[in-house]
C-alpha cells in the first residue's frame, strides 16, 4: 500500500495532493503530485523535487516551477540555440545559474564549443538535479564542462574578454538572483565577453511582468549595440509566454545566414523559428518602444 | 459589508473563493473570484459569468474558460484577421459559435465586410455576454450583423456557395460542439463557401490534444486545397499555446501581398505576426506530417 492510501471503515481512501504555484496574487497553476522526492532549505532557497503526474519530475525553487521533464526542452533549447547559431564560431561559453544542466546539454550539441562553464550559486540544485532529473542534468559530467559552485555575479565581475556567449539562466529577481537583473551585471557581462560576444537572459513574461521586460531592455540597450527580445511557449511558466533578452556586440540574431545552421536534434527550436520567435505580439513589441 | 465578509469574535474574516479549471485530469489553472455574476444550466450547457481579480469578467461554459476581458483580444484577433487579410475582398462572413461577440467585433474592423452572420446554438451565451461582457459583445447590434440562435451544423448544411469566410469559434468537441469536429462538417463548410472561400477553426492545443490537431488537419486536407495550422499565446487556455486550422480553396495565408494589409487597431495581431504565427515549434509541426 502506498503511503497516501489509508483505510477507513474497511474502505481504501486515496488522497490526492496538489501543488499550486501562485504565479500572481490572484492566479496560478495547480497539478497533482504523486510524491515529493526531496525537500530542503538550502543556504540560498527552498528546494523541492516533486514527481508530478502531468509533467514528470519537477524542480521547484522557493515554490516556483523551475523545470519539468516534460516541457523543459522549450526553455533550454531556446536559451541555447538562438545565441549559439547567431555567433559564427562559439568556442567558450558561460552559463550563469542553470544548475539543472539543461542549457549545458543543449550547448554541447554545438561542435564548435570547446568549453562550457556553469556557475550556479547553489550546489544543491546541481546535486539533486543529477539525482532526480538525469534526462536534464546528464551532460554535466561531460569533459568539456566545468561546473563551479560560485556566485555568478562575482564570476562575471572577475572575467575579462573571455567568453563568446554568456547565458543567464536565473530564477526570478527575488532571492539569490536579484543582482542578476541590474545594469551593473549587464556591464560586467559586456566586459566578460569578447569583442564580438553575445549574451542572452531569461526575462520573465509580458503578461504579468511588463515592467521587468521594459527595464531590462532599457538597461541592456545602453550597453550593447544590438538588443532584441524573443518569446517561446512554456506551459508551466506564468502566462505560458516566456521572454528572452539578447544583448550582442556585433552579430544580429535576425541576420543569421542560412548556411550557419547545422543539423541538431531539437523538439522546439528550428531554424525558421529562430527568426519567427522575434516577431512579437503587438502588446509585447510595444513594451520595447 | 460585502456578502463574503463575516464577523467572528469581533474580527472581520474575508473569505476567498477560487475557481479551478482542470485542463487535464492532473493539471489546471486556478484564480480568485470576486463574485459570481450569473450561473445557469441552459438548454445546452452550464453557463457561468464570474468576476475574477486577475482577468476581469470571464465566461465559463461547462466549467471551462471561454473568454475573459483581459486576454480575449488574442483569440478574437487571431481568429478573425488571419483569414480576413488572406482573402482579397471578404464581403459575406459567417461565424459559427462565438456568441460572446468577440470575433464579430474584429470582423467589423474590415471595411470590405458588408454582412456578418453569427449563428450560436445557445441564445443565453449571447444574452449574458451582452450584459456582462459589453467590451466583447458590444458590436452584436451593429447593422451589418445578423445574429441567429440556431444550430451551426444545420445552418452550414443549408448554405450553398454563399460565404467568403467562415470562422468556427466553438467550444471543445464535447457537448453541443461535437458535430463541429467532423469531416461531414468540413465538407458542409466547403459547400457553404464560395469558390475562393476560406475557413478557420479553433483547434485546441498541441500539448494536451495532439490527436485532435492531427485528426482535424487530416480531415481538412482531404477537402481543401490549402490546409495550414497557426498558433497564438492565450494565457487562460490550456498550455497557453492555442492552435487554429485554416482550410482554403484558393488563397494561401502565407502568400498575402503586403499591400493587402490595411491599418486596423489591434493588441496582438500584426502583419508580421500574420506569417510568423505559422512558423511552428518542431513538435507541433511534426503533428502535421
TrEMBL record, chains A, B:
CDD domains, alphabetized: AdoMet_MTases
GO biological-process terms attached to the record: spermidine biosynthetic process
Any Pfam family hit: Spermine_synt_N
Residue ranges the record marks as coiled coil: none
Pathway: Amine and polyamine biosynthesis; spermidine biosynthesis; spermidine from putrescine: step 1/1
Cited InterPro entries: PABS, PABS_CS, SAM-dependent_MTases_sf, Spermi_synthase, Spermidine_synt_N, Spermidine_synt_N_sf
Active site as annotated: 169 (proton acceptor)
Domain PABS positions: 16-249
Keywords: Cytoplasm, Polyamine biosynthesis, Spermidine biosynthesis, Transferase
Catalytic reactions on record: S-adenosyl 3-(methylsulfanyl)propylamine + putrescine = S-methyl-5'-thioadenosine + spermidine + H(+)
Recorded GO CC terms: cytosol
The protein's name: Polyamine aminopropyltransferase
Provenance organism: Neobacillus bataviensis
Lineage: Bacteria, Bacillati, Bacillota, Bacilli, Bacillales
